[in-house]
Amino acid sequence: MARGAGGGCCPSMDLMRSEAMQLVQVIIPAESAHLTVSYLGDLGLLQFKDLNAEKSPFQRTYAAQIKRCSEMARKLRFFNEQMSKADITTSPTQLNETHLDFDDLEIKLGELEAELTEVNANNEKLQRTYNELLEYHTVLQKAGEFFYSSQRTAAAQQREMEANQSGQTSLESPLLEQEMSTDPSKQVKLGSLSGLVPKEKAMAFERILFRAIRGNIFLRQEPVDEPVTDPVSGEKVTKNAFVIFYSGERAKTKILKICDAFNANRYPFPEDVSKQLHAVQEVSGKISELKATIDMGLAHRDSILKNIASDFEQWNHLAKKEKAIYHTLNMLSVDVTKKCLVAEGWSPVFASVQIQDALQRATVDSKSQVGSIFQVLNTKESPPTYFQTNKFTSAFQEIVDAYGVAKYQEANPGVFTIVTFPFLFAVMFGDWGHGICLLLATLYLIIQEKKLSSQKLGDIMEMMFGGRYVILMMALFSIYTGLIYNEFFSVPFGLFGKSAYECRDPSCSDATTDGLIKVRDAYPFGVDPVWHGSRSELPFLNSLKMKMSILLGVAQMNLGIVISYFNAKFFRNSINVWYQFIPQLIFLNSLFGYLSLLIIIKWCTGSKADLYHVMIYMFLSPTDDLAENQLFSGQKTVQLVLLLLALVSVPWMLIPKPLLLKKQHQQRHQGHQYAMLQGTDESVGAELGEHHEDAHDHEEFEFSEVFVHQLIHTIEFVLGAVSNTASYLRLWALSLAHSELSSVFYEKVLLMAWGLNNVFALIIGGIVFVFATVGVLLVMETLSAFLHALRLHWVEFQNKFYEGDGYKFAPFSFALIHEEED
């Protein structure tokens, strides 16, 4: 059987039904288990079953190894964070295949983490000291200015006091001043504190100080010109420099507590001018030395990170690979002798040779004395569903899987979706000008797919890129239906010849069909351009598109019912053939298949019969004469027969199937006796035990539940036949809306701007037309038509045959793990 290549572009016929799967058992010697699982992960064609589901993660065999892998992953995340902070990117080189021992890597990562942590700690200490010195230097400058200005003021006051003392002491002189001047020993010694406080807290800081000390302090603040780096937080903060003069130890204690509460950093300030100058010089020297030391430390840290960056991708790949291997090994059961591991899992039948080859290579490479044993198990368990898709078919398969994963080997709607989905989209989006715009955008994505696939794209762009081949098909079908509708941005073109109609005389206007006569054969392809702009354009196109929608809907629903027949034949379910497929086909075509036939006959004969009247009175008055609504001889008899068949098909769907299922169940379990089955192999015994339990589970047959289920199914189909057919009228509604919007933008924007004979108005009109076309018609209308086509496939088409209750084949594959991470 031919199989599609993973990177190809043409769909394989294997897509119709999922790959044949098998449950396999592999007995692996303990010494080669790690390498075996690694080779199977490279192959990516075996889905392991968890044979230790009852055990917690900590009770499993390889819990310690997984903990080591998690610790390595933590260290690698730490390295990645440090590289991001230092603006160092990892090398985008390809992963080499050189073997790197897991234990050696663990030791190396530990050493690098310890070294990097030590370097960071030292740098943090040095940086904090450096920031403190910068703040201290700022305080020395600002406080020096305070003291210098205060000394000048004090000297001036002293000179003024001495001048006053040289004269007679007057009664107006302050008593305290006289007392202090006469007794210098009574002067009070004031203490001082200096530092920096955040600017936004400065006012509250000052207020609290005055309230706590009762105003017995002198506070001087000055804003620092530039933000300074706070030593504690490491962030840039705007601060004020302050100097506080106080008296007494109690006041000092209160001030210190308030400073701590407001995160005010305090620094010593010598009162002596010479000591101030010495302190400034000493701090400046230390700042320059620390700056050089910090730069050397950062250079050393960057060199370590660059060495890590060169091998980071390889180490990260190995750590994740090892963790995945040990997670998988934990799903294997350990033999009693602890000399071998037993694995069970699902694989495609075609992969048996490749899996056995991987097992053989692992045995040879690990130098094991005993080879692995590969065997296929018999089971009644439902296998996973696996479709081999490529870059073309994968997006269409995702559309189907979003509704539900196909049951094992049931017919896959994805095969038909490749054609029907873009076609139904194009019926609603038919305009070959808009289709060309979509095609150009998609061709860009396809041409640049190698470049774009390696880049980080936004959410919307990622969705568009993933569905580029879906959009390609949608664009091609839109061009096709646009040519049928004869619309290019709502403008008709006579691409396939001249119109079949011409004016009777020169007074004939292009805006009406009055006076038009048919002078040649019908327009060869699509709608005749003369219909556009005529008074009968809308009634004609409405009638055409509405009838076409019904024909397409009935055809697709019949396709779904026919696929249900092939499903029933494939699973050898004759009950579904005789009591589901046949009555459903009869019911649908007795009503809406007949309506489709009447539409075609009316088109072919040019009859003016009212089809609404025919269908309504087919039910209300089936025996009445059809009169002018008769399309063919014997129509009344045909309608009576079809109505009778439709009425008979309802109990045909409802009653026989539950009765026959009950009869089958009784025959299957008649005379059955169950006995204990014994087996030497534990896995075989467990399997037989499961089958024994399954038999007991299915022993009871609830006829009432089955009958109610069939009743619901019958009612759903009968009502759905009407509602689903009506639902396909959305093809007509969306197509009409798209055409009218396009016509409005062309006539009311572009032509109106052209008619003004003004260059500026033409430019504005052209810009508005482009933005309206792109924003409304190429974005919003595309999304709207896409969603409506999606609904028609999920509800109207797939519910006729698709169960969608399966589960995806999820093999252990390193390639899939890396794709999920990306």
Automatic annotation (TrEMBL):
<feature type="transmembrane region" description="Helical">
    <location>
        <begin position="468"/>
        <end position="485"/>
    </location>
</feature>
<dbReference type="GO" id="GO:0051117">
    <property type="term" value="F:ATPase binding"/>
</dbReference>
<keyword id="KW-0175">Coiled coil</keyword>
<keyword id="KW-0472">Membrane</keyword>
<dbReference type="GO" id="GO:0046961">
    <property type="term" value="F:proton-transporting ATPase activity, rotational mechanism"/>
</dbReference>
<feature type="transmembrane region" description="Helical">
    <location>
        <begin position="759"/>
        <end position="780"/>
    </location>
</feature>
<keyword id="KW-0375">Hydrogen ion transport</keyword>
<dbReference type="GO" id="GO:0007035">
    <property type="term" value="P:vacuolar acidification"/>
</dbReference>
<keyword id="KW-1133">Transmembrane helix</keyword>
<feature type="coiled-coil region">
    <location>
        <begin position="95"/>
        <end position="136"/>
    </location>
</feature>
<dbReference type="Pfam" id="PF01496">
    <property type="entry name" value="V_ATPase_I"/>
</dbReference>
<comment type="similarity">
    <text>Belongs to the V-ATPase 116 kDa subunit family.</text>
</comment>
<protein>
    <recommendedName>
        <fullName>V-type proton ATPase subunit a</fullName>
    </recommendedName>
</protein>
<dbReference type="InterPro" id="IPR026028">
    <property type="entry name" value="V-type_ATPase_116kDa_su_euka"/>
</dbReference>
<feature type="transmembrane region" description="Helical">
    <location>
        <begin position="548"/>
        <end position="566"/>
    </location>
</feature>
<feature type="transmembrane region" description="Helical">
    <location>
        <begin position="423"/>
        <end position="447"/>
    </location>
</feature>
<feature type="compositionally biased region" description="Polar residues">
    <location>
        <begin position="163"/>
        <end position="172"/>
    </location>
</feature>
<keyword id="KW-0812">Transmembrane</keyword>
<dbReference type="GO" id="GO:0000220">
    <property type="term" value="C:vacuolar proton-transporting V-type ATPase, V0 domain"/>
</dbReference>
<feature type="transmembrane region" description="Helical">
    <location>
        <begin position="637"/>
        <end position="655"/>
    </location>
</feature>
<keyword id="KW-0406">Ion transport</keyword>
<dbReference type="InterPro" id="IPR002490">
    <property type="entry name" value="V-ATPase_116kDa_su"/>
</dbReference>
<feature type="transmembrane region" description="Helical">
    <location>
        <begin position="578"/>
        <end position="601"/>
    </location>
</feature>
<feature type="region of interest" description="Disordered">
    <location>
        <begin position="160"/>
        <end position="188"/>
    </location>
</feature>
<keyword id="KW-0813">Transport</keyword>
<comment type="function">
    <text>Essential component of the vacuolar proton pump (V-ATPase), a multimeric enzyme that catalyzes the translocation of protons across the membranes. Required for assembly and activity of the V-ATPase.</text>
</comment>
